[in-house]
# Entry
Amino acid sequence: MRNLLIVLSGPSGVGKGTIVGELKKRGNYSLSVSCTTRAPRECEKDGEAYFFITREKFEEMLKNGGFLEYSEHFGNYYGTPAAFVKEKLKYGDVLLEIDVDGALQVKRSYPSALLIMIAPPSEEELIKRLKGRGSEEEDKIRERLKRASYELSKKEEYDYTVINDDLGEAVGRVERIIKDRKEKGI
Ligand code: 5GP
# Structure
């Protein structure tokens, strides 16, 4: 069975990270570590959540075709290192947790990639979750909501949309989608 490149996207606050964490506990998935030019948040270690690199280094890698996809958010670059993903795909399925612009770039270069959109049950619930994080100011929340509606507007271009209402059910659905795709061998 061929190893799959699985792309998970969805608005900030939707619970993608938690779903990815659960999938990793349950299966033989490796998670791609992206490069970013944003500063590390407290408790983020280099090489875990991201590889934290300078703008100069990012632009140099970009020029040399080092990224499978990339995009810019809130003034910072984010990209998936191509060599890293290629190497990991030799050993198992690889999960990418990236935004819609990046996901659609991946689909162009890897048409067999499986694209899954994680959506909130409603906009109200997303606002509640973003506020519940407690780390975001009002204008940041507004900015993230605007971005959220853009991300969700692209869901038709994804293979599947999974609503994260109940975490266990959402993880189960994602697992079934992956299993099904692997069984069909597409
Ligand atoms: P944050 O700064 O909150 O960790 O991430 C901001 C946004 O960047 C999120 O929407 C996240 O999905 C996206 N992102 C993280 N890594 C990548 C990547 O490698 N490529 C792309 N295109 N987006 C990414």
The chain has one domain: 5-184. Residues 12, 34, 38, 69-71, 73, 78-80, 97-99, 101-102 surround guanosine-5'-monophosphate (CB under 6 Å). Strands lie at 5-9, 29-31, 34-36, 50-52, 67-73, 76-81, 93-97, 114-119, 160-163. The first helix runs from residue 16 to 26.
